[in-house]
Amino acid sequence: MNPVSKLFLLGSVLMLTACVGAPKKYDYAQFRTEAPRSILVVPVINKSVDVNAPDYFLATIATPLAERGYYVFPVNMVKSVLSDDGLSDANLVHSGDPRRLGELFGADAVMYISIERWDAKYVVLSTTVTVELNYTIKSAHTGEVLWSNHQQVVYQPQANSGGLAGLLANAIVAAIAKAAPNYMPLAHQANNGAINFKGTGLPAGPYDGLFGKDMSDY
User: Fold this and answer.
1) CATH number among 3.40.190.10, 3.40.50.2300, 3.40.50.970, 3.40.50.10610, domain 3-196
2) What pLDDT is stored for residue 5 in this prediction?
3) pLDDT, tens digit, for every residue of 114-129?
């Protein structure tokens, strides 16, 4: 085990979501009516200060959507095609007509994601790493919103109460987390909460064995 791993084992991981209590069940009437089979994930709007956040995040989203039973257009191919079409700016893509995107790619629905937070803050011997995301799916046929979700996930090494040695260990762990925060586990957890949580996530898609059988959950 390398020294960095040993240091991180000095503190346990606290993972928190922004939701308090049971979230209200989403209205899936329009989603069920359209029953999209394919989802086009467009470039992400980045409101954080980390310029690499969109590329890192895009690497995490296709797999959970596919595992939920939807065909997902390869995100790098989508980004390249949009750039060739003069749509390299994510803000322009998000403000445009999803029906145009549907025609361009032959997609049933378009997923828009904005990164609200992707940061690490150091406060008194502790570093808090936060990922906050907004997800929206719009119909590529009508332009209407079919589904939306918000996720916030936080990582914070739990305080070690072992006297001076514990304070030193906390300081080292916090410094490492601040210098090289690992956002990917948080992004994966946010995606899981957005896509797979019953009542607010996505119903099973047509390539999932539960398709049409999970009506009571959604």
Assistant:
1) 3.40.50.10610
2) 40
3) 999 999 887 655 678 8
